[in-house]
Amino acid sequence: MTLKQKAFTRKVLIYIALIIMAVAALFPILFCLSASLRTQDDLFRNMFPFSIKSLIPTAATLENYVIIFTKHEFWRPIMNTMIVTVFTIIFGCILNSMAAFAFTCFEFRGKKILYPLVLISFMVPFEAIAIPLYSVASNLNMVDTYAGMIIPAVADGLVTFLFIQFFKDIPPSLVEAARVDGAKWPTIFTKIIMPISVPVFVTAGLMIFMNQWNSYMWPLLVARSKDIRTIQIAISQFSGERSIQWTYIYASSMVSAIIPICLFLPFQKHFVEGITAGSVKG
Amino acid sequence: MGGIYIKNKWLPYLLILPTILMICIFKIYPIIDSVIQGFSSADSNFTLDNYKLLFADKTFWNSLKVTLKFNIIIIPIQIVVSFIMALFVNVKIRGIEVFRTVFYLPFCISLTISTVIWQMMLNVNNGVINSMLGVLGLRPVGFLIDKKWALLSIVLISSWRGCAYWMMFILAGLKGIDSAVYESAKIDGSGFFNTMFRITIPLLKNTWLFVLVANTTANFLLFAPMQIATDGGPQGSTNVLMYEAYKSAFKYSNRPRQACLVTILLIIVMLICFVQNRFMTDKEAHK
Q1: Which residues of A225-251 are buried (b: 16+ CB within 10 A; e: fewer)?
Q2: With a CB-CB cutoff of 8 Å, which residues 131-190 of chain A face chain B?
Q3: What is the pLDDT of residue B281?
Q4: Which ipTM was obtained for this model?
Q5: Which of chain B's residues have a Cβ under 8 Å away from the Cβ of A111?
Q6: pLDDT on residue B118
Q7: So what's the pLDDT on residue B1?
């Protein structure tokens, strides 16, 4: 084999491996999409024995989507999740960036104790504290409220850390110049720091979005009433009902997946940056 | 901006107050509360009875066994598979961005949704996986209802999404390696496996440390797939400690038992992470 042939074979083998892995990653998503577009009868009748019809609808229909939104009021958990997510992003971005600003820009007593506290908090796995946290939420009358889902998720050590990492790299001369001009701290923060920190706000916002949109355990504990349950809870309860049609579950899963996917595709870079921030630099 | 440390009496405290306050209330306090509850009797005196009761319980020992078994299987699988995925996605080849995006996609699907979708796909009677196995002449397998398969099926479900996640960290680590290192290895005539085990893997030390610790923690505390797909069954074969803790609190309303379970779980996780940390740093010292 010549060198050229060897390089070619190597390329082909790499592509084959990539394709196999891509199929494994995509199959459940594509199958879910396909199943959401057919009637349950069509899905079950063609399942055994296996044929191409097991995977592809014989007649595509949007009926499942119509039914989950009308009969099962699926818009309600979506609205709830939106409310929870949007408010957590707003408060999370403001409060965590404020704290990060204080940690990077100011010298103050107790900083050496408080900074590690923030770092420790993002190493504490949420699942471990979720159940005792329920008692806290219950004492604060936050059970079955939006606040119960939003407030405990606002302060996030990883998000604060992300802001700190970014603020550190802002040239001090920018801030000094503004101070010489007599600008007050709130002005410096909102007029100078925030505008050049847009990328890190996007990253932080995406991270919070992902956490809240996909969060399961906490809403399961704290928001069990039907009126304020989130999308993940709605689907898990949906799938637990014996009489429910599978194609409805597939359709609702698709609805819940499509929003994070749509945000992920254009903002991929920010996303990965946010998620890996604590590991690579920390 | 890190250079300018300015003294201001009250402003920094005001800025950090909300975050610190919330971290204390919602993150630090629950842990302390949990540990205390495990050692408290009904009239709030110190007692070891909760632990004694738990250690006399067969369900606990079964859950401990299941938890360890689950993690011994899932942690190496997830780390090896994510590493292989990251290696492939790091190759400079046409169209690789598309593959990278595709590999990330399962991470966008929440664990809840992945579990629900896989649960239907793995169903005995109407599941597409069993239908495809039929082509190979295999009889339908009760993936989630057969004691032999349930735990492995949970491993599959969690890893489908998990590998996409862990791959991101390993890929970030791989990208941090200076390509000059590979160039010189190539000039020295180092083969693929030699380069990988002698250069790539050792250079990723910090990444490994993070991924190992974070992956161990995440998997030891995993409970959503069990709660949704198997309810800890069949015959307790997927009843991990975390799910037992959840049930203690919300099904049996036994808070002290839950507190003990979570405390034990955290101690196990901390011990393992400590050992991993030691092991990784020791290796460094030898060089």
Answers
A1: eeebbbbbbbbbbbbeeeeebbbbbbb
A2: 131-136, 151-152, 154-155, 157, 160, 167-172, 174-176, 185
A3: 72
A4: 0.86
A5: 12
A6: 93
A7: 57
